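Hi all, long-time lurker, first post. I run a small reading group and we've been trying to get comfortable going from sequence to structure in the token notation. Rather than ask abstract questions, I figured I'd post a concrete chain and ask someone more experienced to write out its structure so we can walk through it together at our next meeting. Sequence below, copied exactly:
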Amino acid sequence: MSKRSAADDQTEGQAYAKVSGKAARRDDAVIDEMGEFEDAWEDEIESEGEAVDVDADADADGGADGMDVDKVLPAIEESEEKPPEAQAFIPGTHVLGKDEVLEPDDTVYIMRHSMNVSWPCLSFAVLRDNLGDERQRYPAVAYIVAGTQADRASKNELSVYKMSSLYRTQKRGDDSDSDGEDNEDDLDEDPVLEYRSVPHDGGVNRVRAQPLPPSSGLPLVSQPYYAATWAETGKVHIWDIRPLIESLDTPGYSFDKARTGKPTFTINSHGYAEGFAMDWASSGGANPSALRLLTGDIHSKIYLTTTTPSGFNPLSQPFTSHTSSVEDIQWSPTEPTVFASCSADCSVQIWDVRTRGRQSATGIDHAHESDVNVISWNRSTAYLMLSGGDEGGIKVWDLRSVKSKGMLFRVSSPVAAFVWHSAPITSVEWHPTDDSVFVASGADDQVTLWDLGVEQDDEETGATMNVTPDGDREVPPQLLFIHQGQKDVKEAHWHPQIPGTVISTALDGFNIFKTISV
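-- Answer (accepted) --
Happy to help. Here is the structure in token form:
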């Protein structure tokens, strides 16, 4: 983001200089016999650059009678001073002045769009579609599922959104059309946001969609596509959202409300304790259609729900190693029985569902100084895990170095730690294919992109890379990009089929963007 002064749009000073009010006036011009007028000021209008000796003329023409002659002021030259250049706004180093506003630098975005919704959505999930993988053409199309946080419980909804007309961002001063050819990718049009909704009992704390195999499209319309919602009522609802997607893509299609208008299944294992932690996994192997859903509540309990040919089966015995609210859960990308969780007890725990007693197998007891809000398990390099804390810190863990329970001096250290955000971390997520890149969001209104593969090279640059020119704040060399403009960002996710594209949700709506950095 860059900043500019609102005063830049105003011109300082006057366009022309004023003549002194004390100067004597000339006598009125005399009309001659021909009726023509003599220009009283004609002999004082000179061509540009011509010097006039006013005193000499006055002595020769009228100095004897004492007539005063106005002096000719030099020509006012237009200032060639350029307006101040826009500066990159660095949070924590720069502070907006009274007349300054943030405006995006569109030269660093390939695509950037903002969309407002009726009610804030604290959580959403990106949905796979049938438009193919590795998409590079514009306008782009994206689908998400989200739940609302309305002012009254009866107004809440679960909605499937279709974002379309996502054109490439136009650059200021872009002359790409000078060749006379119209580029449909670069049309300057607003995005279109369509949605289909069903009523939801209470506000939605978190939404997660069932995983689909890589490079696969949507299930057939007759097959279910599940999304789970953690409600503030303490219930976890499972919905079939496949008909909602179909109604967005097929004109005239009317979905069966008996199938979609109410939850397919409701998990009551948590009683009236609400929660936020939730993650799906596919069993894979011989039964790829079998699903597993983990849910964690504010009373430190985690429950597992599985699927059978007859439907969903919630298991009654909880996992109970945490001592405070469970904030996030992630299944292992390689081991179908292993998952990780983080909690307000400052720890990250690793579990195996086959373990008797439902206790964690290992973990990091003091992962952060305060609540551990979010975690993300690397899909490409399975021993790497991200965590984000309430203090604003982001840490990278090598799970190979995490010691088992019962070992003496069970202390683990992160392989990398970043303190950039100035408020609680609300979301972290590894890039779906690049194992060194991740996105993070915070309550400080920032969405940041990071690359662990970037290393500091002082010898090449001749200066310290992680220090700003003013020396006010260290900027980690791994920090690639800062996206701003939203208020109180809650979640940010990569789109798995549009490389480098990030979608974020905040109190003021959704952003979808792709930068030149990733």
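A couple of things your group might point at:
Residues 136 and 498 are 7 Å apart (CA to CA).
The radius of gyration is 33 Å.
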